[in-house]
Batch of 4 targets.
Target 1
Amino acid sequence: MTLNLVVLPGDGIGPEVTKAAEDVLSAVCKGAGLELKMSHHLIGGIAIDETGNPLPEETLAACADAQGVLLGAVGGPKWDGGSVRPEQGLLRIREALGLFTNIRPVRVFEGLEHLSPIKNAAGLDIVIVRELTGGIYFGERQEGDEVASDLCTYSAEEVRRVVAPAFEIAKARNGKLTSVDKANVLASSRLWRRTAEAVAKDYPEVTLSHALVDAMAMHLVTHPNDFDVLVTENMFGDILSDEAAAVSGSIGLAASASLGAPGTPGLYEPIHGSAPDIAGQGVANPSGAILSAAMFLRFGAAREDLASQIEAAVESALKAGVLTRDLGGDANTEEITSAILERL
Ligand SMILES: NC(=O)C1=CN([C@@H]2O[C@H](COP(=O)(O)OP(=O)(O)OC[C@H]3O[C@@H](n4cnc5c(N)ncnc54)[C@H](O)[C@@H]3O)[C@@H](O)[C@H]2O)C=CC1
Ligand SMILES: CC(C)CC(=O)C(=O)O
Ligand SMILES: [Mg+2]
């Protein structure tokens, strides 16, 4: 069997962490007798520099033909203030591939409990399911010198199609789902809540509760272990997942899978950005990218066995104390990657 993966390294630390993830994927596939074909394409700031377009047609065509897409990160100060932004490339690819469900697991790894900024995060294991192609990031935008606006719109169908997989994930775990919204203020959130309640009728084995996003931001740093699966709209999920990742010890640890309709290619990326403050130094934590590659094997190649193999190797390297700077250690990207490769 051949796996066809498109790699979009992007900007800043993107190429550093995707390189690590490629090395790990290659090793695992080789060990399993799987042929892995990888092709590299442009996205983000580097794509603007080379083509003027943050998502060149050629990149999109390659992605549409692949089994999965591994992305590093886009953006950086070089492109801030420009009329075309690297982040537009990321939003466009999510929209073009129809990637409406973004799965962001967050765990406190064994041995890293002390790195959490909160005292009761040990054993944390939650999944944030974030809607990825609707809401305020995709609404009509108006930008004037004195007034600007961003419209947040959701249809019931957009809510249903992301809430349903969240129920599935909750059903396969502990039967507990928390839907996060701002229904005390926003009409789009009231539609979200009503729709989640309607979908709940198909999942009698799952207990659905609701939380307002401001309170949820607090719960994540006071008693995160009371939660298991969260489902929420695009912007709330963006913000809460960075927060949850910080609670787990570092944003460098957090992976994600963005999925659309069955049979279409998913996109796998760490949740962090291009980290311009450390780019080019070879010190970025590649764990989030490597764990995203594991999610590609799980969701894009139906190889749960290989995904688990990578996850176990990452956990073991971290437990052994091979830690990058963001985790309080002095290992560089290459050293942690080697430690993971040794454990495969
Ligand atoms: N998916 C994407 O491509 C994303 C892109 N961005 C873009 O990235 C650029 C920088 O954004 P920031 O707000 O600084 O967020 P960021 O996530 O890039 O960095 C925030 C902080 O976390 C650290 N960090 C992030 N990833 C790390 C890793 N793997 N290892 C060690 N430390 C890590 C950075 O050094 C920085 O101190 C912006 O242009 C932004 O628009 C931001 C978020 C997501
Ligand atoms: C740069 C944004 C478009 C994306 C983002 O922050 C994210 O997906 O986490
Ligand atoms: Mg984000």
Target 2
Amino acid sequence: MAVAPYELVHQPREVVARVRARGRLVLSSPTINRGTAFTLAQREQLELTGLLPTGVSTLEGQVRRVWAQYLQQPSDLAKWVYLANLRDRNEVLFYRLLSEHLPEMLPVVYTPTVGTAIERFSHEFRRSRGVFLSVDHPDQVETALRNTGLGPDDVDLLVATDSEGILGIGDQGIGGIEISIGKLSVYTAAAGIHPRRVLPVVLDMGTDNLRLLNDSMYLGERHARVRDHRYDELIDAYVTACNKLFPNAMLHWEDFGTENARRILNKYSGVCCTFNDDMQGTAAVVLAAVFSAVRAAGSRLADQRIVIHGAGTAGLGIADMLRDQMIREGLSPAEATGRFYALAKQGLLVDDDPSLLDFQVPYARSRAEVAGWPAGAGGVGLATVVSRARPTILIGTSTQAGAFTESIVREMASFNARPIILPLSNPTSKAEALPQDLIHWTDGKVLTATGSPFEPVHYKGVAYQIAQSNNALVFPGLGLGVAVTKASRISEGMIAAAADAVAAMSDARTPGASLLPPMTVLRTASAAVAIAVAKAADAEGLARVELSNPVQQVYDAMWQPEYPRIEPIEA
Ligand SMILES: NC(=O)C1=CN([C@@H]2O[C@H](COP(=O)(O)OP(=O)(O)OC[C@H]3O[C@@H](n4cnc5c(N)ncnc54)[C@H](O)[C@@H]3O)[C@@H](O)[C@H]2O)C=CC1
Ligand SMILES: CC(=O)C(=O)O
Ligand SMILES: [Mg+2]
């Protein structure tokens, strides 16, 4: 194996870089490069004298410079490219800039702009980042992971996607690597997971996206998406290799197609430390948002009737978690399940539908119940379900922009003093409704949260803060809690603890207040989630390190974007 240009030694609240490289190699290694912030003495030690402008900058001065450059970028995609290039040049500077401007930059490194970057991947490609695994070469999985140069204690987590259901924009083939990279940027910015202790992965199964297959620049496998036993073989090769090479790492699954997402989680969650963000992360943050909304409405979760528009991975992950909570609050399992009406492409899920997926079956309504409900070619539609079921909560995970129409929303407001309406689909272009419309149509009565970020809405003298109900409030802290405890599994109790921690930071009882903590406090929220998750893992006997002081242990583990202490070592 090639000799590494540096070694990082992680100590509580400090990282030391033992640097073997000299000269230009230092400047082209983004983890140790600090450009004009190298002192004159460091330049001499690392053979950089004469290779940099003579002025010496501070990190703060560099942040001012790159912030100004960032603001000059003409479009959101140009901003995304600018940040990607900065990360490839100087990782500490990138994360410092991101941390200091998180609310402004989250919409660029994450939803919505990351969606555009994913669609444009093969055109905007500049420098490779992450691990690319192919369904055509399962034999190369272990080699590819070894080629990262990382050892058994070096990796806290991997984010992998098969790219079939990227956000709400569907099959994106090899470009899905950018959702893994984007999620990891949030892990680092929000929870201080060290950027060198994570790996973004794409599992290239081919693609059914004809735009990509017909694009001469496309960089992925040029064939249709593989759906047979070879799919499972690649997933299995990946899990096996990860468990062997990185035994303490958490495996995060992102944006899989709905038929595979749950199946994969069910298969591996009892075997290793694994987490599906779209199901579990989303469910935890939505539970927190619903707790907050129900409290603001002066009601109880156990009293709600809930319509889920989009009975896929996210939608029914949310339903499962809300249902479990209703049961904890005293409803019988049948009563709790009966509170849900779920719609998919075929309209309301009804029990005689042979196309139901196994996880949809429990939520299907009986044919007899809906016999008199008007139905069109697309089954029983959302407007009918809302008028017949009279829900208190409407949740959108359908990817259908504008599905929450004015008449549906007005109807919700006609029988609810505070209708709870959560259009969660991403990116922004897929939102089921826009918050300003929801607020106008309900005359300010709505309690809402969205998947992608929105500006506050001003209506009749009140500034309504729009909560971003996005799994970004949960997964970074969850990953940190797992890393601190080296948890062997992720349990339902750990996910519930994450939801409780977010809920404890939310209070929407004043007019216009956000249902969830704002992204400005994402780092604090992530630390709170991490502590709660670490304690839950410990209580369930899943922690593999002693948790003597969870607050201190979590705080010590949070990397701050500061230049590491440099110790030059012999080549
Ligand atoms: N805010 C957040 O944190 C999260 C938001 N999401 C968003 O939720 C959306 C769905 O994501 P997944 O659940 O992963 O996708 P999925 O493909 O598993 O689910 C989508 C569901 O919508 C249904 N659907 C499609 N057209 C419909 C229509 N016309 N009427 C009713 N239902 C329809 C599909 O049948 C499917 O059940 C995406 O836009 C995604 O960005 C997903 C995860 C987290
Ligand atoms: C936020 C997220 O995970 C999604 O939209 O898929
Ligand atoms: Mg997702």
Target 3
Amino acid sequence: MSLQGKVAVVTGASSGIGASIARTLASSGCSVVIAARRLDPLESLASQFPTVTPCQCDVTDLSSFRNLISTCESTYGFPDILINCAGVMYFTLMKNCKVEEWIKTVDVNCKGVLHGFACVVEKFIERGSGHIINISSDASKRMFPSLAVYCASKTFIDVLAEGTRRELVGTGVKITNIQPGDVKGTELIMGNTDGEAAEKMGVEIGKPVGEGFEREQLLDVEDVAGAVMYALEAPKHVAVNEVLIEPRDQE
Ligand SMILES: NC(=O)C1=CN([C@@H]2O[C@H](COP(=O)(O)OP(=O)(O)OC[C@H]3O[C@@H](n4cnc5c(N)ncnc54)[C@H](OP(=O)(O)O)[C@@H]3O)[C@@H](O)[C@H]2O)C=CC1
Ligand SMILES: CC(=O)[C@H](N)C(=O)O
């Protein structure tokens, strides 16, 4: 299915995977509203494409998410596609009780996605079409030490999506979860604080994801954007419900 003329909203588009998805959609003929809390990187990305508009949004705040969808509606029309990509990941050992980081993980990764559903599902059903894509993680499929809360948050997304998908069978609405393994060069672990947990995972706090890994142990952001395109471009009668995409040499 061609994406020419479609309207998309991408959260978490100020860096990493979300920025790559936004670039790919814009290059494929979509009008895109890109969202995150940091406006500067959004504006810089938007300046490279005639049909990309930045919108500051905190996905943990429902009214902020509603404002994002209204901005899209008044600029390009109600979205055909919502990409829930905003997310945080903290390596934390449960014994170190980083409660604030646990709560933030739940707020962004779980509540943020729920807010996205709240803003589009009803209208998608009414229109008989619409596609929600969630950037989940392979951490929803297998547990990693030091990531209990993160794994739980991504499992929440998978279960939410599958439950909603079953409820919506026959409505024309599609929901896809993309479950990437380690992706190179994103800012996901920059703000981590539990040094003991990070050390256990063999990562250095303050460095982008993948420092010191072999090439075949990492995906590029474009690989994840490619998986998103695969799901979006599938024929109308095909639902790509999940895509587990990992680097060749990830254990
Ligand atoms: N890198 C990896 O190895 C993998 C990443 N993922 C998932 O991919 C997604 C993107 O992560 P990635 O690109 O790696 O990391 P980045 O840290 O580069 O991107 C995270 C994005 O989320 C945004 N964000 C964080 N909190 C909020 C918030 N409250 N409201 C709105 N936006 C927010 C950030 O923008 P800002 O700070 O400006 O708000 C940023 O744009 C996440 O959901 C992550 O879990 C999944 C599997 C593997
Ligand atoms: C658990 C992981 O490290 C996964 N690659 C992710 O970043 O979600």
Target 4
Amino acid sequence: MAGVDYLADERNKAEFDVDSMKIVWAGSRHTFEVADRISKLVANDPAFRKDDRPMLPRKELFKNTLRKAAYAWKLITELRLSEEEASKLRFFVDEPAYTDLHWGMFVPALKGQCTDEQQSKWLPLAYKMQIIGCYAQTELGHGSNVQGLETTATFDPQTDEFVIHSPTLTSSKCYHTVEVLCTWWPGGLGKVSTHAVVYARLITDGKDHGVHGFIVQLRSMEDHKPLPGITVGDIGMKFGNGAYNTMDNGVLTLDHVRIPRDQMMMRVSQVTREGKYKQSDVPRQLVYGTMVYVRQKIVADASCALSKAVCIATRYSAVRRQFGSQNGGPETQSAHYRKSYTGLIQVIDYKTQQNRLFPLLASAYAFRFVGEWLKWLYTDVTQRLAVNDFSTLPEAHACTAGLKSLTTTATADGIEECRKLCGGHGYLCTSGLPELFAVYVPACTYEGDNIVLLLQVARFLMKTVSQIGSGKQPVGTIAYMGRVEHLLKSRCSVQRAEDWLNPSQVLEAFEARAARMSVSCAQNLSKFSNPEEGFAELSADLVEAAVAHCQLIVVSKFLDKLQQDIPGKGVKQLLQAVCGIYYLSLLHKHQGEFLATSYITPKQAALASDQLRALYSKVRPNAIALVDSFNYTDHFLGSILGCYDGNVYPKLYEAAKKDPLNDTVVPDGYHEYLKPLLKQQLHSAKL
Ligand SMILES: CC/C=C\C/C=C\C/C=C\C/C=C\C/C=C\C/C=C/C(=O)SCCNC(=O)CCNC(=O)[C@H](O)C(C)(C)COP(=O)(O)OP(=O)(O)OC[C@H]1O[C@@H](n2cnc3c(N)ncnc32)[C@H](O)[C@@H]1OP(=O)(O)O
Ligand SMILES: Cc1cc2nc3c(=O)[nH]c(=O)nc-3n(C[C@H](O)[C@H](O)[C@H](O)COP(=O)(O)OP(=O)(O)OC[C@H]3O[C@@H](n4cnc5c(N)ncnc54)[C@H](O)[C@@H]3O)c2cc1C
């Protein structure tokens, strides 16, 4: 039945122009065209096959990743791809690799933390991949607490060098009697990187200046062996088959390793030839700049991972049929379910399925738009920093930290929900969902544990509340705090379900909830004589206030997007419905907070649920077209359940036949382990 599109009927139902939506999703016609061309290039090249990944032993898996990365680089250079095209190519190859850390963290760290002179030395080497780098910050004992890092970089004025040392201590202070203080986790470190940006405490003349970044060569450029004083290796298998095990997360100890003074990254602060420590006129927090950059990238990436899972679950929900009647006989479910030609109900028509799936579909779009906005915010703060305007740095930190936390938590949970939405078949590796989850879930931890990051947002919120009335007007994402008096008093004016489609009404509801939760936390905090003690005691409430603030940002950026000119038949109308699903499903999920802060009444909450159901019905005929708008190839999706033509069952059957376990009819091990067992039972049962 090759060539039949089993989802054609669904595609014909679409009430909007899919090609226009594809451009909205991509961000621009240019971005769409690049992504479309590069994704097809990757999909059509058998060298990028990835369906065997869950079955490969680690060593083979890793070697395969090295092969793909080298081949990708060959294509990039031979085809003279631009930076944008090259980064799209790596994205569509869709396999975590050392290159993610080289391009995603090492190069940005060089750009952000090095002086112009240092950049002119290191960047050309990194751009040509003549050196490969990673970002080595986390230690075995310290991840979240960056200030607590224990690796030291001690300046030796005799030789004009830093001595980098990660001590192995015998300590009686801590729970363990022996504490090994080494770097632990960096991707690309274990087996590949020739260089690392290592974070260490800077010591000059016996004085500790806190954590700074240093460029350290790890391996010989001749034979790839670790340089003297360096012990390095992989930290071992991680969660899931295939998944993130293509990455060589590493362990590193540095035993009095010497590097030249000019390998301290000196944009933020410098050490002179005489060993004098000098701080530039920029905030110390810029040492953390690479994390701000990557968190912003991770937010954009969340929409990719979630949209992938949602595309799989939506297509499969339209293909999968359960209950109803096959031959026009008695029905097992009520008559209002739409029936297909077979008389069976598509599971996507169950309201419970829609109630689980459509908010995730809406979140994928919401994260796409907030990711676009965050990229703008990051570019803006970078331009300001270049002219010594540091005023928006705290907001940029709070937004990147908070949105990274919000979007990765929702995406990881959403992928798992999509797996369940696909029933039993979702549990098969060929659904693509187990591996997607296993690859994605560490995003809740890396680049800052999601709770730790929300606590940073909470600090920012509490600082803002404490400044209300001081004359300092809150701006940007926190501007609503400037209207806090109104927001504390106001009441929701919704009277009919459709009133929940009014953007200013919705915005005020989310602002009032966020403002009231923050103010309530601040009031409770003020009861403590020691603010830090109060912060620790109230941290669970503070995290909830931070989530409310971050959700407000996502909702407001989606609403802002809808204010723009969006061309294409029906595109804007559909996006309005999708946006409505996003905020009303949040309102429903967090109803308790909206009610407890007394902004809305139970009746208004019920009207919100009515409107939400109405929007599900509006989106239902457009669901397949909405996921087609992501423009994902079958290669990128890596899922039989999500394949474009919906021809799921024969493909599942064929894939099962190809499983190595089915290479022989009688399994290996039969003669050793099954036959004797069966024989013995045969004797005892006298059969
Ligand atoms: C498969 C990959 C898939 C997707 C990725 C897609 C795209 C990404 C592209 C490339 C990346 C490639 C792959 C990514 C995969 C994995 C890589 C993982 C890498 C890592 O994990 S690197 C290690 C990251 N570590 C952390 O994030 C540690 C978390 N901890 C911290 O950030 C800080 O220590 C903390 C907790 C924020 C602050 O601690 P503390 O309370 O002790 O405060 P400080 O004294 O340190 O700070 C005080 C002051 O500074 C402000 N501040 C803190 N951080 C920042 C910052 N980053 N920027 C600006 N300002 C900051 C803080 O608010 C305080 O301000 P105040 O004094 O209150 O005004
Ligand atoms: C796949 C992967 C890739 C990584 N890649 C890199 C890399 O390339 N380079 C690198 O340097 N690092 C890397 N990391 C390390 C990563 O950045 C850290 O694991 C992360 O920052 C979390 O720190 P932690 O492991 O110390 O967690 P911990 O801080 O030990 O967290 C443990 C628990 O304690 C809680 N907790 C901690 N502090 C607080 C607090 N103050 N208040 C309340 N609760 C708290 C957390 O919420 C969590 O539940 C990677 C990690 C993973 C999983």
